[in-house]
């Protein structure tokens, strides 16, 4: 995980040195725009959904009758945590849609990063390019499916008082792992690893995937600039963090 985190600082220096800014800013601006619009509507939808649940289940009337400040506090905290989990779930879906849309750019950026490291040029193949896109879409779809299963399970835990307070942490770790997985797979494909081999390899290096996804999420704490830089920085960082491991395997 430490290697994955350090790779982001290496990525920043790498991007500056080799003037890769156009490959960072083009997908980044698109991502930031969609992120702002999407999260606004997601926030409104989540709040309306929680309010609908409260009214339909009769929880509000029950709490009003009991008039317990402690239960009211637990209920408020539970509602807040449920809102956070729903936002994570929505963000997860949005993220995978963008991964599918941006897979050609991300595959190219990962390839260009490794080409610079090795001091050589990978010959462009349109057939391979289409294969990379198909592979990226397939992996993103597979990860989205499994992550949705885990997040829905965590969502159910979020309804349990006290225990539910831990669920946002679990949800974030799951999010980080599957996002980092998608970023790392671009390198795995280039080295002729099958999806099964990629799953096995990355599963044995979960720290790299979680660390990559964790910094990606932390960059979202910096408004606008962080949102623009996060997607492409994560691709370059994943490529840099994987390269020494793959080099040792040769």
How would you sum up this structure in a few lines?
This protein is mainly α and 250 residues long.
What does this molecule look like?
With 250 residues, the chain is an all-alpha fold. It has one domain (2-39, 81-245). Helices cover 86% and strands 0% of the residues. It contains nine helices and no strands. Helix 1 (2-17) crosses helix 8 (206-218) and helix 4 crosses helix 9 (225-249). The protein is elongated, with a radius of gyration of 20 Å.
What does the secondary structure layout of this molecule look like, with pairings?
Blueprint (H helix, E strand, L loop, with lengths): L1 H16 L3 H37 L1 H8 L2 H50 L7 H32 L9 H24 L4 H9 L2 H13 L6 H25 L1
Helix pairs in contact: 1-8, 1-9, 2-4, 2-9, 4-5, 4-6, 4-9, 5-6, 6-7, 6-8, 6-9, 8-9
Largest β sheet strand count, sense and barrel closure = none
Domain unit count: 1
Query: For this entry, what is the oligomeric state of its chains?
Result: single chain
* Element pattern in H and E: HHHHHHHHH
Number of helical elements: 9
Could you name the ranges where pLDDT drops below 50 across 5 or more consecutive residues?
A: none
Radius of gyration: 20 Å
Sum up the overall morphology in one term: elongated
Strand runs, count: 0
Between the first and last Cα atoms, what is the distance in angstroms? 23 Å
Structural class based on helices, strands and sheet pairing: mainly alpha
Task: Report the sheet-strand fraction.
Answer: under 5%
Q: Which range best describes the helical content: under 10%, 10-25%, 25-40%, 40-55%, 55-70% or over 70%? A: over 70%
Mean of pLDDT: 80
């Amino acid at each position: 995980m430490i290697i994955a985190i350090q790779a982001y600082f290496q990525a920043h220096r790498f991007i500056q040195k080799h003037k890769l800014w156009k490959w960072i800013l083009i997908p980044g601006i698109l991502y930031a725009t969609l992120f702002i619009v999407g999260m606004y509507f997601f926030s409104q939808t989540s709040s309306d959904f929680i309010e609908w649940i409260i009214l339909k289940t009769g929880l509000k009337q029950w709490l009003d009758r009991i008039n317990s400040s402690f239960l009211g506090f637990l209920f408020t905290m539970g509602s807040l945590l449920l809102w956070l989990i729903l936002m994570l779930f929505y963000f997860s879906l949005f993220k995978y849609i963008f991964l599918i849309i941006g897979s050609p750019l991300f595959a190219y950026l990962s390839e260009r990063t490794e080409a610079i490291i090795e001091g050589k040029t990978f010959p462009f193949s349109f057939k391979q390019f289409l294969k990379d896109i198909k592979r990226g879409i397939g992996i993103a779809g597979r990860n989205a499916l499994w992550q949705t299963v885990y997040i829905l399970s965590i969502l159910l835990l979020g309804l349990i008082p006290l225990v539910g307070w831990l669920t946002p942490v679990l949800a974030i770790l799951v999010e980080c792992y599957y996002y980092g997985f998608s970023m790392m797979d671009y390198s795995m494909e280039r080295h002729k690893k099958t999806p099964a081999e990629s799953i096995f390899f990355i599963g044995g290096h979960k720290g790299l995937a979680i660390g990559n996804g964790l910094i990606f999420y932390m960059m979202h704490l910096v408004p606008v600039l962080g949102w623009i830089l996060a997607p492409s920085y994560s691709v370059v960082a994943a490529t840099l963090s994987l390269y020494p491991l793959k080099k040792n395997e040769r």
